[in-house]
Amino acid sequence: MKAFVLPSADQPATIADLPEPQPGDDQVRVRITAASVNGFDVFEANGYLIPMMEHAFPTVIGRDFAGVVDSVGAGRADVAVGDEVFGFVPSAPPLRDGTYAEALVGGPDLVLAPKPSALPFTVAAAIPLAGVTALDAVDAVDIKPGDVVVVAGATGGVGSIALQLAAQRGARVIATARAGDEESFVRGLGAAETVDYTAGDVADSIRSIAPDGVAALIDVVSRDQAFVRMTEIVRDGGRISTTLGAADVEALARRNIRATNVMGRPTTEKLIALGEQVLAGTLRIEVQRTFPLVDAAAALAAFAAGTRGKIVLEVG
Predict the structure, then answer these.
(1) CA distance 247 to 260
(2) What's the predicted TM-score (pTM) here?
(3) 71 falls in which pLDDT band (50, 70, 90)?
(4) N or C: less crowded end of the chain, CB within 10 Å?
(5) Both ends of the chain: CA-CA distance in Å?
(6) Under 8 Å CB-to-CB from 118, ≥6 apart: which residues?
(7) What's phi and psi for 302, nearest 5 deg?
């Protein structure tokens, strides 16, 4: 089968031919139709995770997927051949199996959810990691109706979903977005106000909109001093979630701010709930662009350059 792999610790990621994987007794095989791009995939493909996590080479890149079950081990009764599914491969070491391939085999740890038949495979594949990370980030800040909430990084995969979920819970959302198409995009998703992150100090701009500070900050882009600066807009007693591990939880607690470093953890239940929302039209998943599997390197480069929504590989 064709797959996009990291061949070894000292070779760049590339398209390769691998043996067709065969499921064991407690495993299923999914014929991959689509797989989406996440930041983890970019780091993995560039070898940045090799010093941090054990790899089994060749390592197939990719975590999110949507496809069709085409083989089921004798010990599995929860899925059947022909089921349309979407899901997530947990990043437990040794890293070996991924979704940038024509087929994927996984056991009980593989997160699987039934794909609604009316949901396109490309959209379903874009949901798992970004959708669950957004959901967990919004849950962490415990939004109350009327809260003023900033979503920093509102145009990307995680941010665009978090913005919508926050607005659904009654927040008045201030979103960071470049003036023009990005501003129109986030307003269409429910942002009440926008701040152009390319024009001056973002925190100062937010202060001009909310001079008394905001109830909560959901930040998917800021690190180091940029993140510290963003925390200054949150009033004492507020809540913060960051998806980049940027929060000094103890220091913020001294301001009576509850901060959470969020690491999205997909589960079947969360995927089903998000899929139902997308199908109902209450949650929009923006797929900015699709690439064929053979152009996986170009897809990763496009993601690294910045996206409006998600980038997806069309595999099958």
Answers:
(1) 7
(2) 0.97
(3) very high
(4) C
(5) 11
(6) 279
(7) -65, -40
Residue 129 has, within 13 A of its CA and on its CB side, a CA count of 24
Q: How many CB atoms lie within 10 A of CB 135?
A: 22
Per residue in 249-282, pLDDT (tens digit) is: 999 999 999 999 999 999 999 999 999 999 999 9
How far apart CA 55 and CA 51 sit, in angstroms, is 9
Q: Are 46 and 98 in contact (CB under 8 A)?
A: no
Per-residue tokens: 64:
């999110």
In terms of C-beta distances under 8 Å and separation of at least 24 residues, what long-range contacts does 152-155 make, across chains too?
Answer: 152/176, 152/197, 152/202, 152/217, 152/218, 152/219, 152/220, 152/221, 152/222, 152/230, 153/219, 153/220, 153/221, 153/222, 154/186, 154/189, 154/191, 155/182, 155/185, 155/186, 155/307, 155/308, 155/309
CA distances from 236 to 48, 168, 253 (A): 37, 24, 9
Helix (H, G, I), strand (E, B) or coil at 45: helix
Residue 247's alpha-carbon distances to 143, 144, 212, 226, 274, in angstroms, are 19, 22, 22, 11, 27
Q: Is the dihedral of CA 286, 290, 295, 301 positive or negative?
A: negative
| Type of residue numbered 81 | V
DSSP symbols for 172-216: EEEEE--TTHHHHHHHHTT-SEEE-TTSS-HHHHHHHH-TT-EEE
Q: Are 125 and 86 in contact (CB under 8 A)?
A: yes
How much is the pLDDT for 316?
A: 83
Neighbours of 153 (CB within 10 A): 24
DSSP letter at 315? -
* DSSP label of 295: G
- The region that residue 301 occupies, defined by phi over 0 for left and psi between -120 and 50 for alpha, beta otherwise, is alpha
Closest C-alpha to 27, from 125, 104, 114, 124: 104
CA separation for the pair 79, 72 (Å, rounded): 7
What kind and span of H or E run contains 294? none
CA dihedral 24, 26, 32, 34 (to 10 degrees): -150
